[in-house]
Amino acid sequence: MKDVKTNIHVMESGSIVTPNGFHVGGVHSGVKRRRNDLGIIYSELPAHAAAVYTLNQIQAAPLHVTKESIQTEQKLQAVVVNSGNANACTGAQGKKDAYQMRETTAQKFQVPTHYVAVASTGIIGLDMPMDKITPHIEQLAIGRSNEHAAEFGESILTTDTFSKSICFETVIDGKNVSMAGAAKGSGMIEPNMGTMLGFITTDVAIESDVLQTALKEVVDETFNCITVDGDTSTNDMVLVLANGLAGNNSLTPEHDDWDTFMDLLTNTCEELAKQIARDGEGASKLIEVEVTGTKTDEDAKKIAKSIVGSSLVKTAVYGTDANWGRIIAAVGYSGVEINPNKIDIAIGPLQLLKNSESTGFSEEEATAYLQNDTVVITVHLHNGEGKGKAWGCDLTYDYVRINASYRS
Description:
The protein has helices at residues 61-73, 91-109, 130-137, 146-155, 208-221, 258-278, 297-308, 311-318, 324-332, 363-369, 397-404; strands at residues 9-10, 22-27, 38-53, 75-85, 116-123, 164-172, 175-185, 196-202, 237-242, 286-294, 344-347, 350-354, 357-358, 374-380, 386-393. It is of the alpha+beta class and 408 residues long. The relative contact order is 0.14.
């Protein structure tokens, strides 16, 4: 994760309801066999909203409805989300069902319809079981406790093995502000918003257009730098709600504390992204790749993604095999112009390659390092000042098992 500046602190007991004015809840509606599958985020005041969506050309009905809601007034007050059914590739009925989820939520929480966003995740191509969804929206109970946050966190999961959340606090304009996030994602994860949902709440005051620009920049450096299996889904988005209840002056790039806000947003998104990468389906290890010495930062990110997305690199990490040949091959086919004779590669503290030649490293030490839960691969190209990172996970037998039986 990007180094957290001294005036930004992780709130260990914080959650998505820590920012002032946010309430959440989650219930089991019966779409899934067990755990919660329907959740809600509610803001006491209409919040300025920004969102980034999947780049898959096939986009699920809830995304179209959410885009419509945000475009109306650039504000949201509630987000309803279900798991277990993606409501994707479901035609006119799917869009009708997404609108029904929005309307029922608006009535339940007594807010204008266009202040409601809709999100869904799960199996593609099945009609929504609205006989289960609608009555349980009407039963949703909200609160500000960590128990409510846990109920919401569970409600958005599919094949995830744990809930993803983070909370930071800082000071802007002399006001205490906080930002928190909850996310889901495990499989179909590829840069450009693979199967994942990210919900971020903050009590910072900021206008929607400014927030949208900031979010797009940060997503490109965080969520779009993770990959699990190369698939990009139909449903996914990162959504930020900023209700202004901290009482600071509205933020713009000219504000004295703009850099602090950007650090706050970056750290929130990066931590959620890393948690998603760590929880790749069947994964046992988080892989972090850091590339330096490229002509541009974009080149470095492209190479880092190439390495972390390589099935051969991922399986080598799973098998604790320090096979640097797979890493250098991924550098070579990344599409970035390099000097093939000036490549340095290290895993953790161990230098494997110097100027494209093996250092005669200890295989035993390398194997021992690769047994860690987090594996860091660093590559230096000696071709400029560019730098970038990407995150992913190892590829295990369980990935095939989980995805072979996902619908059964």
